[in-house]
Amino acid sequence: MGVTHLVANGTPREAASQAILLAPNTATVDPMGECIAQFDWGRTALGPLPRWQASLRIAVDMMLLSPFACAVVWGPDLSVIHNDAYRALRLGGQDVLGKAFDAVWSDAWQTMGPWVFKALEGRSSFVEDPPMRIACGQNGDPVWCAFGYSPIRDEQGSVAGFLHTLIETTANVEAYHHWREQAEAFEKQLGSYMADREQIWQLSRDAMMIITRELTLHATNPAWHRILGWGKDAAQGMPILELIHPADRAEVQVAVSGFVQDKALEQIDIRLRHQDGHYRWFRLAAKFDGSLLTAVGRDITADREEATRQSEALLRNSEHLEVIGQLAGGMAHEMNNLLSGIGGSLELLQRRMLQGRLERMETYVELARDSVQRAMNLTHRLLAFSSHQPLDPKPLNVNRQLSLIEPMLLKALGAEMSLHWQLDVRPWTVCVDLTQFENALINLCVNAREACLERGSVTIRTVNERLTAHFPDEQGLPPGDYVALHVEDNGHGMSAADVARAFEPFFTTKPMGRGSGLGLPMVYGFVGQSGGYVWIESNLNEGTRVSLLFPRSRASIPAEAPACLPVIERVQGGRLLLIDDEVNLRALMREFLCERGFAVIEVSDANSALDRFRHDGAFDLVITDIGLPGGFSGRQVAKAMRMLKPTQKILFITGYTDQPIEAQLLEQPGTALMLKPFPLEQLANQAQHMLAD
User: Fold this and answer.
1) What pTM was estimated for this model as a whole?
2) In whole angstroms, what is the distance from residue 596 CA to residue 610 CA?
C-alpha cells in the first residue's frame, strides 16, 4: 500500500479512474497520506487500517486527492480522517486524526449537528447561505466558510459516514462560485463511485466472491483472481468446497448455514487453494440476500506467516535460554571440580612448607598443573563452541592431512577398532585452522570408539560437493563448491531426541565421568566459524554418521608443512615489550621471561605501549594481549607499531576475541599467535624461536 494510495494498484486508466487506481503524482501527493498510513488506527473504532472496508479506503483516497479542505467522517463514533487543507483551514496545522467529529467542531456543533444527521440519513447538503464564521483559520484570523455534507455508503448500501467539505468564502463572490461548482462536481463524482457497486467490485483490493445456495462460485472480482491465480473461466461454477482446505471445510459449512439463516457471525479465517496448489489464508465476512451469498475476504497470509515467524523466534529464544542455563551449570560444575583440585594442592603445598616437610611436594605441584591443563582444555573447547576462538586458517589438502594424522586417529580409536578410508581422488582445497581440524577429527574418533564399545569400525570419507541451492535451508550455506568429510561408525547409534541435542554443551549420553559433553559442541563451533556446516545422521542400533561441510578455497597449498618449533633452553639477551592488562599474569610472565634471559619492559594498556615504543628505543619482540582496555586493541597496537617499524616482530596472546584476527595480519613475517592459558615455558620458547628466526 502506497503512502496515500489506500485502494489498489493497477494499470493506468483515464480521467477519474486515475484517482483510484494510481498512486498520485509526487507533486500532488497530500502530505497527510503519510500521517494516515502511519497512524495507529487500532486504538479507534475504525480498527487497523488493513481491515478497513473497501468503500472507506476508496473514500479516503478520493478525499486525499481533493483540492478542497475536506474530511471523511466514518463509523458510529464519527471518526475524522482529514486532508492537509482541512487541517490548515480549520485546525491551524494540528492533526485530529481519529477524533470524534462533534469534538473537533464542539464550538459550532449546535449549527452543524442537524446537517450531520441529515447526511447520516442519506441526504446531501451544501450550506452556503449564510456562510459560517470559523474562529480559527490558518493564520489565526477568522474566516468565512461554506460547508458540504455528502453521505458515503458501504458495500451493503448503508450510510456509514459522510464527506465534510470546507470552502472559504472570504474571497470575492466570483471566486466563491467557481470553487462551489468544482466542489459540487467532485462530490457528484464521489457519489457516483460510491453508488456504483460495480466500481467497488472492480477496484477493491479485497477478494470478493458471490456464492450460490449450492455452494458454487457465481462470480469473482479481479482481486480474487489476482490473489489466487485462477482464470475467470476456470472459477465460474466451481464448487467452493473444492477450493477450501480440508481442515477448514466443516467450519465453512457451519458458517454458511449461519449466514443463510441471517445469524450474526464473526469473521472467519480459512484457507483457499491457489491455482498452483498451495493455500492462502483469508479473513472472510459475508452477507446473504435471500438467494446469493456475497463474501469479502482480505488476504492475511503474510500476517499469519509473520506471526508464525515470531512464535518460532520466541521458541528458539526459549531453547537458547535453556541451553545457556545448561552451559552455565555445566561450566560451573567442571570449573568447581578443577578449582578444587588446584586449591587443594596449593593448600597442602603451603601446609607442608610451613611444617618444613618436603615429601610429596612434587606430587602436589603435578596435581595442580594437571587441573590447570584440564581447565585450559575446557576453556578452549568452550571458545570453539562459541565460534570465538582465534583461528589461523591455512589452505590444505584434506586427504594429505588425514594421512599425516592417521597415527593419532588410530591411537584415539584404540587397538580393537578398524579404520577404513574412502577418499575422493582429487579433493578440492579447503582453508581451515590445522590444529582445530585435527582436534575435531580426534574428537569424532573418540566418540565413535565409545559408541562401538571399543570394538567396531570407523569409515572416513571425503567427497567434493557442489550445492545448487541453499543447504539445509534458506538460512544455511549458499550454493557453491564444498568438500564433505563424513565420519561413520557401526556403533549403537543415537535416538532422534539425542541427535537433536547432540551439539548442546555439556550434553552427553556417556556414563558419568566418561565425557564432558564438549566434544561435539567444539566440532560444531569450529566448523561454523570456518564457514561450513555440520550435521548428524543416526538411528538406534544402526550406527552414526557425522558430516562436515567446508567451503572450497581457491588459494594454493604450501609445498611443505611448517616445521616444528625448535626448543631452545636459554636465550642470550633480547629486549621485549610486554603488554597485558592482567596484573598478576603480567608479573608472572615478566618474571619467567627475565629468568630466561630477556630484558622485559611491561605496560598495561595500548597508549603506554605506544609511548614506550616511540621513546624507549628498539624492541626485538613485542608481546601483546589482543583485548586491551581503553578501546584500543592489540591489533591496532600492532598496526601502529608497524607503521613506525614495518619489520617489528609481534607475538599476540589472547584468551578470547569477539572479532577474528585478520588473516593478512597473522601471515606477515615475524607474527605469531598463542592462546591463553599456556605454560610459561611455551611462551619463552615461542619468543626464543621468533628472535632466532
Assistant:
1) 0.39
2) 25
